[in-house]
Design goal:
Blueprint lengths: L6 E21 L9 E21 L5 E23 L5 E22 L15 E16 L2 E16 L11 E15 L5 E11 L3 H5 L2 E3 L4 E4 L7 E14 L2 E23 L8 E27 L2 E16 L13 E9 L3 E10 L10 H4 L7 E13 L2 E8 L9 H4 L18 E8 L2
Parallel strand pairs: 10-13
Antiparallel strand pairs: 1-2, 2-3, 3-4, 4-5, 5-6, 6-7, 7-8, 8-11, 9-10, 11-12, 12-13, 13-14, 14-15, 15-16, 16-17, 17-18, 18-19
C-alpha cells in the first residue's frame, strides 16, 4: 500500500520579473589641466521572483511552499584620463576613477507543513545591504619600445545584515584593502611584444557565504554560514607574448598566484550523508594556496572570399590549484577548456559555428568530498551556431542555436559536492538543444 506521505498530486508555478535601466556618457577632447576625457555610467536593476509549490499527500498533511526573492542593484562609475607628453619621446596617459555598487536583497519563505525542525515564515539568509566602492589610478608611461603601467586601487566593502526575522545570527562586517600593480611591455618589433604583470589582489566574502543557510533533509545535506570568513588576498604574476605568425594573431600567457585566506566554496566540513549525520558544506578560508595555469588564444584570418571575411578564433586554457598547507588540490578549479570556431563576416551580418570542449573533472584534481563518492562530470563537446544582423547602426538582431547535437552534459561548478549515488544527478544537467533570440537597441 502507498505510504501515508505518498504524493498523489503536485504542482508549481514560478514568476520572474526583471527591470533594468542604464545610462552611459562620454566627453572627449576637453583639454583641462586634470583631464582630457571623461566617461561615466549608471545602472539600476530590480529582479523579483516568486515560486509556489504544493503537494497533495495521501493521508499525511499537505505541503505548500511560497518563496519570494527580490534584489535591487545600483552601479555607478566615473573615469577620467589625461595624456601628457615630455622630452626624449616620453608620453604618459594617467587614468583614474571611482566604482560603486550597492545591492539590497530580501527573501521570505512561507507555507504549510514546514521541513522538520523549521517553522514558517523563515528566511534562508537575513535581508542584506551589500555595498562596495573603490578608488583607482594608473599611469601608462611609454618610452621608446618600453611601456610601464603602475597602478593603485583602494577597495572598501560592507555587508549590513538585518537581524529582524533572523536574530543574533545575522552577521554584519566591513573591511578595506589597498592593492598595487605594475605592468611592463617591450615591443621586440612591429609584430611581436612580450609583457609581464604583477598585481596584488583582494576579494571580500559575500553575504551568502557569511550568512546563508540551507538544509535538505530528504537529500541528507545542508550548507551552513561562516560568520568568521575573512577577506582573501593574493599576489599574482603573469608573463606572456603576443604577436602575429603570418595570418595568425596569437596571445600566450602563463600565470601564477599565491593566496592568503583563499575563499573556497562548498567545502565538506562534516557528515557522512545519512539522515542522522547529513553532509555539511561551508565556505572556508584556506590559509595558503597556489593557483597557476596558462591561456593560449588567437585568430587565424583566411582572407575574403565571395565578399565575406573568413576567420578561425580559438582558445585553450588550463588552471590548477593546491592548498599549500594540506597539499590537497583545489576542487573549486574548473577543468581545462578548448574552443575553436569558423567565423564569417559581411558588411551587415556575422555568423559563427563554434566547437567548445570541456574536459571532465578527474578524481586526482578534487579533495574527493561526499565520503569518496563525488560525482565526476564527464568531458563534453558542444556545437553552437550564432549570428548577428546589424539592421542599422543602433539596432542589432542576435540569433543563436546552442548545443546543436543535444549533448547531455554537466558543469563542474554545479555538481561539486554531489554524490555519485545521488538520485537527482540528471536534474543538474545543462539545457539540451536550445535557441535564443534578442533584439538590441541603443539610444
Amino acid at each position: 500500500a502507498p505510504a501515508a506521505t505518498a504524493v498523489i498530486d503536485s504542482g508549481s508555478s514560478t514568476d520572474m520579473k526583471r527591470t533594468r535601466g542604464s545610462w552611459a556618457g562620454e566627453w572627449r577632447n576637453l583639454s583641462t589641466p586634470a583631464w582630457d576625457d571623461i566617461k561615466a555610467s549608471l545602472s539600476y536593476q530590480n529582479a523579483d521572483s516568486r515560486e509556489f509549490i504544493y503537494e497533495d499527500r495521501l493521508t499525511a498533511a499537505d505541503r505548500t511552499r511560497d518563496v519570494t526573492y527580490q534584489e535591487k542593484t545600483w552601479q555607478a562609475n566615473v573615469q577620467a584620463s589625461k595624456v601628457l607628453r615630455g622630452d626624449a619621446g616620453l608620453a604618459q596617459k594617467i587614468t583614474y576613477g571611482i566604482d560603486y555598487v550597492r545591492s539590497d536583497v530580501e527573501n521570505l519563505q512561507t507555507g504549510i507543513t514546514p521541513p522538520v525542525g523549521e517553522t514558517f515564515p523563515l528566511k534562508r539568509f537575513p535581508d542584506t545591504t551589500e555595498s562596495s566602492w573603490a578608488l583607482y589610478a594608473q599611469d601608462e608611461l611609454v618610452l621608446g619600445n618600453w611601456t610601464f603601467t603602475p597602478g593603485l586601487r583602494y577597495d572598501h566593502f560592507s555587508i549590513k545584515a538585518d537581524q529582524a526575522g533572523f536574530g543574533a545570527n545575522a552577521v554584519s562586517l566591513s573591511g578595506n584593502a589597498t592593492s598595487p600593480k605594475l605592468g611592463v611591455m617591450y615591443r621586440v618589433d612591429p609584430a611581436w611584444s612580450v609583457f609581464g604583470n604583477y598585481a596584488k589582489g583582494f576579494r571580500a566574502p559575500n553575504a551568502g557565504q557569511v550568512n546563508a543557510f540551507f538544509e535538505n533533509p530528504v537529500g541528507n545535506y545542508k550548507t551552513i554560514p561562516n560568520p568568521d570568513l575573512k577577506p582573501e588576498t593574493s599576489q599574482n604574476l603573469e608573463l606572456g607574448v603576443r604577436g602575429r605568425l603570418g595570418n595568425v594573431a596569437l596571445d600566450v600567457a602563463a600565470f601564477t598566484g599565491r593566496y592568503k585566506d583563499f575563499i573556497d566554496d562548498l567545502v565538506q566540513v562534516g557528515g557522512v550523508g545519512t539522515a542522522a549525520d547529513p553532509l555539511v558544506f561551508q565556505s572556508v578560508n584556506r590559509g595558503k594556496v597556489n593557483i597557476s595555469g596558462f591561456e593560449v588564444k588567437g585568430d587565424a584570418d583566411w582572407g575574403r572570399y565571395a565578399g565575406i571575411g573568413w576567420s578561425t578564433p580559438f582558445s585553450w586554457g588550463r588552471t590548477q590549484g593546491r592548498d599549500r598547507t594540506s597539499a590537497e588540490p583545489l576542487s573549486s578549479i574548473d577543468p581545462q577548456r578548448f574552443t575553436v570556431g569558423l567565423r564569417a563576416e559581411a558588411a551587415v551580418w556575422t555568423a559563427q559555428l563554434g566547437l567548445n570542449y570541456t574536459q571532465g573533472k578527474k578524481a586526482k584534481d578534487t579533495t574527493n568530498p561526499s565520503g569518496g563518492t563525488q560525482f565526476l562530470n564527464p568531458s563534453a563537446t558542444l556545437v553552437d551556431l550564432t549570428a548577428q544582423w546589424r539592421i542599422r547602426k543602433d539596432l542589432r538582431l542576435n540569433v543563436g542555436i546552442y548545443n546543436l547535437t543535444d549533448k547531455k552534459y554537466w558543469r563542474w561548478s554545479d555538481v561539486r559536492g554531489l554524490a555519485s549515488s545521488s538520485g537527482v544527478i540528471d536534474s543538474y544537467t545543462q539545457p539540451g538543444r536550445s535557441a535564443k533570440v534578442s533584439l538590441v537597441a541603443e539610444f
